[in-house]
Amino acid sequence: MIKGIGIDMVELPRIEKIIENKMSFVQRVLTNNEYVLFQQLPHKRQVEFLAGRFACKEAFSKAWGTGIGSVGLQDIEVLKEENGAPKVTKSPHKGNVFVSISHTDTFAVAQIILETD
Hints:
- Helix content is 40%, strand content 31%.
- By secondary structure, it is of the alpha+beta class.
- The chain has a single domain (2-115), classed as CATH 3.90.470.20.
- The strands form 2 sheets. It has a 3-stranded antiparallel sheet. A two-stranded antiparallel sheet has the order 2-3.
- The longest helix has 22 residues, at 43-64.
- It is globular, with a radius of gyration of 13 Å.
- The mean pLDDT is 94.
- One of its GO terms (cellular component) is cytoplasm.
- Residues 4-98 form the 4'-phosphopantetheinyl transferase domain.
- Its EC number is 2.7.8.7.
- It is found in: Cytoplasm.
């Protein structure tokens, strides 16, 4: 049974400015494991990665029904499967979490579906 659905969209130019001026924001958004992946990427992919992860966390909070605050950015971790697909590896949700991330030249969008038994 679906418990919640969330979607969020982030502007890549906004994230690029944040990376250039406020690296502390990057570390507030990304878990230690996500940050390791982030550091291995070239700049353009770092922007897409951070935007996608931020959108995932916002989308999760919407699906959870609380928004960011009741669930923190560090409470949700999005790593990747062996094939590169995103995978939520940490969250307060006890059921299945489905995630999809997409990018254009100017936006990243993420959708989360929370499923319970």
